[in-house]
Every structure is written in structure tokens, then in C-alpha cells.
Backbone:
């Protein structure tokens, strides 16, 4: 992860978002879906990658914003 990418993760019974490199969460949510939506907005506003982790801490998904920055050549 690059510094500034947005990370959605589960900690202490809450879903949270934070820019990579920060120690504290920028916001919290009760559900993963709510946290993902907030994290997506943050990533789009900043033009960075959004890393969504599962409850166990493994990476579940990665999305790059804007799409033109995505290093993958494949569609989808």
C-alpha cells in the first residue's frame, strides 16, 4: 500500500477507514457496507487506491481511483 491509500478495516468491534500511514481512523461505521461507502468516497476524492480488508485482516478487494491509474491491463 502506498502512503495515503485508504484502508477499510475491522478493529475493536467497529469498521473503520484511515489513510495509510495514519495511526488513527478518520471515521467509523457499524457495518462493513457503510465503511466501504465512506472509504470509497475518500479514495475517489483523493485519487488513491481503496483497500478493503475482511474482518480477519486479509485483503478482500482493492479499487484504484481514478480507474486510469489502475496498473492492471485486464478489463474488470
Residues:
Amino acid at each position: 500500500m502506498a502512503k495515503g491509500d485508504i484502508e477499510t478495516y475491522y478493529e475493536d468491534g467497529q469498521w473503520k477507514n484511515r489513510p495509510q500511514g495514519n495511526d488513527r481512523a478518520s471515521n467509523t461505521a457499524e457495518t462493513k457496507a457503510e465503511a466501504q461507502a465512506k472509504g470509497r468516497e475518500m479514495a475517489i476524492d483523493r485519487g488513491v487506491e481503496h483497500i478493503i480488508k475482511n474482518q480477519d485482516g486479509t485483503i478482500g478487494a482493492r479499487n484504484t481511483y481514478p480507474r486510469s491509474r489502475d496498473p492492471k491491463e485486464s478489463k474488470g
